[in-house]
Specification:
Length: 164
């Protein structure tokens, strides 16, 4: 019976996902505590062409934004499909999780997740080629995320060189 009552207190839109930043410096319990108090959201699956102004326009509907940090390819210094949105209050961030997660921005379904708080340096992609790791392994063609994934681009280039 108690488990059923706990479900009534749950808000699946703002509950923490199972994802944890593998590069977090510190213990898992410290990361969990920061996530539960955070005013910062990670926003993924953005188009490489989505602007800070577009992100601000959408996310400001749920509250006052303190800052937006667009994720950059660490080599090219161009947008690479993610950002951080920091709010002044937890309530505003919760509203964004409830009402914006899963909506469309720049014709793409975006996803939001809690972030333990932006630290300088995290705005850069962590992939070997400078962008996001997931874009390196992508085999499909996605014009809003730079075409083919990096490994697929390399394979296609090699196949093209072997053709007479």
């Amino acid at each position: 019976m108690a488990a059923k009552l706990n479900a009534l207190n749950s808000d699946s839109y703002i509950d923490m996902s199972r994802y944890r930043d593998q590069h977090f410096v510190g213990e898992l319990s410290a990361q969990e505590k920061l996530l539960k108090q955070s005013h910062t959201l990670y926003v993924g699956n953005l188009s490489f062409y989505t602007t800070e102004e577009q992100v601000h326009e959408l996310f400001s509907k749920s509250g006052d934004i303190k800052r937006i940090i667009i994720g950059l390819d660490k080599i090219k210094k161009t947008a690479c499909g993610f950002c951080f949105v920091e709010y002044y209050t937890r309530t505003d961030a919760e509203n964004a999780m409830r009402f914006i997660n899963g909506t469309r921005l720049d014709d793409r379904m975006i996803r939001t997740d809690w972030d333990a708080g932006f630290i300088e340096g995290r705005q850069y992609g962590r992939g070997f080629f400078g962008g996001q790791v997931r874009d390196e392994y992508r085999r499909d063609y996605d014009p809003a995320r730079g075409g083919y994934g990096k490994l697929a681009q390399q394979t296609r280039t090699q196949e093209g060189q072997n053709t007479f």
